[in-house]
Amino acid sequence: MKSNENQMRSSGGKVQEFYTKRALSYESLYVKRLGWGRELDTFFSDSDYLQSSLKVLDAGCGTGVITRTLNKVALKKGYEDIEFHAFDLTQGMLDIFQMHIEEKEIKNVKLQQADVLKIESLPENWNDYDLIISSALLEYIPKEQISNALINLKKLLKNGGKMLIFITRRNFITNITGKLWWKTNLFKDDQFHRELQDVGFNKIQQRNLHSKWSKYIMVFEVIK
Ligand SMILES: C[S@@+](CC[C@H](N)C(=O)[O-])C[C@H]1O[C@@H](n2cnc3c(N)ncnc32)[C@H](O)[C@@H]1O
Questions:
Q1: How far is the CA of 15 from the centre of ligand 1 (A)?
Q2: Residue with the nearest Cα to atom 18 of ligand 1?
Q3: Candidates 3.30.1490.20, 3.30.70.590, 3.40.50.1000, 3.40.50.150; correct CATH number of 2-223?
Q4: Which of 137, 201, 207, 222 is the most exposed, fewest CB within 10 Å of its CB?
Q5: CB 62 within 8 A of CB 92
Q6: Ligand 1 closest atom vs CA 31
Q7: How far is the CA of 136 from the centre of ligand 1 (A)?
Q8: Does 97 sit in the ligand 1 pocket, CB within 6 Å?
Q9: Could you tell me the residue ranges of all domains in the chain?
């Protein structure tokens, strides 16, 4: 038991170290140059996940591309009073997000450093979410802990709330790129579908990204 705990601690520690060193390059390479930010903009502009007065959680927010995009789309569509909470394991990623919040004088986003496997460290009112987004987070959770991460996210969702999960699809290319970037956990569509069923989600649908990203990233929508 002890060695399992140590293993988990060290795996979280390694991820943190990895992203602390790469926070700036993640934002400039992945979000900007490779176009992850633009892809999300198209996806959320064309969808109807947002409406006024929602409470939204961005789990494993990194430098904040999900919340930043949702906030922009919400403003464009005239939705008001949306409250965003976002957490991440790596303070260095949150610092970049915080700089953006200050630069743009954004008032409706709160950040917190936290581990998806230890949600008890989140502030007391961080629960009962209408919408939770987890984007490129679960790849970094040890496989034997994925169900715990999903159970925790499910606890934070209100009854009838929606969760949207963006997760890397296992294929020939991602097997190679995953290993070059980080030894991420990769799933095929049916494997991840089963993970969701195993933690008690029964309203599960798959969505598609629009461009080349759809080959590499799966999008699952679940309702509690
Ligand atoms: C690939 S980045 C994704 C960031 C952002 N969601 C996006 O779509 O650009 C993965 C992020 O997951 C965070 N992360 C990894 N393990 C985590 C954990 N156990 N709890 C919370 N965040 C974690 C990392 O710190 C990193 O910022």
A1: 8
A2: 115
A3: 3.40.50.150
A4: 207
A5: no
A6: 9
A7: 6
A8: no
A9: 2-223
State whether the beta carbon of 12 lies less than 6 angstroms from ligand 1: yes
pLDDT at 10: 56
Question: Does ligand 1 have an atom closer than 6 angstroms to the CB of 93?
Answer: yes
Give this prediction's pTM.
0.94
CB of 117 sitting under 6 A from ligand 1: yes
